[in-house]
Amino acid sequence: MAGAGDARGPGPAAGEPPPQQRGACQVFPERPAQGKPPQEGFLSGFFTNDQKCPLMLLKTLETNPYVKLLLDAMKHSGCAVNKDRHFSCEDCNGNVSGGFDASTSQIVLCQNNISNQAHMSRVVTHELIHAFDHCRAHVNWFTNVRHLACSEVRAANLSGDCSLVNEIFRLHFGLKQHHQTCVRDRAILSILAVRNISKEVAQKAVDEVFESCFNDHEPFGRIPHNKTYARYAHRDFQNRDRYYSNI
Ligand SMILES: [Zn+2]
């Protein structure tokens, strides 16, 4: 989500498999119409997927504490996010929920695979973490798999992808260190969804960066395990901003 003319890579940074079906295919090199504007002209109470997507996105941007913090952090880093410019609701191939397209600094939302508001919020949060990483650092998404691995670890760790309620639904509850295991597994799956590499290579990349990237909680300052934590993190971020602006 860096400024205009930013072209650090020729295609996608990441594609996310939905939680219920972790196997996914590579979808973004075949994006049919980049930058397609959201559909307009909502009629009556009946919405199709391509009409629901921008409405759910708007609600997520305005109300979700994870997203509000990330939007503030992007703005603070000089990469202000514009709803119409930086998000694109599209139909995607396979089971992918969304992705960050580094070549256009756009977040793709797979309207045919995002099923409800909570899912929309998780996808937007996850992709905004990639966008934040893209903004703050020179990320070699395509030439250095460890850079991708680091951002996937951070996105899985901080987006709520591995929050307790999600995990209970997956019937994995009760293991110590489970959050770390979930983050590692999801990071590996996200890499495999967009890179044609072996599972062993993906695992090695994740393991090499895991400790430092798992402990990098920016811009949250903590692991926001639920919306209450995310609200606290947002408040602290705003106070941090205020402190610096008073110097
Ligand atoms: Zn990702």
Automatic annotation (TrEMBL):
Region (Disordered): 1-41
InterPro entries: Peptidase_M76_ATP23
Principal EC category: hydrolase
The EC number(s) this enzyme carries: 3.4.24.-
GO molecular function, one term: peptidase activity
One Pfam family linked to the record: Peptidase_M76
Keyword Metal-binding: yes
GO biological process: proteolysis
Keywords (A to Z) from UniProt: Hydrolase, Metal-binding, Metalloprotease, Protease
Protein origin, superkingdom: Eukaryota
Composition skew (Low complexity), residue ranges: 1-14
Similarity comment text for this entry: Belongs to the peptidase M76 family.
Protein's name in the database: Mitochondrial inner membrane protease ATP23
Species this chain originates from: Ceratotherium simum simum (Southern white rhinoceros)
Gene: LOC101403578
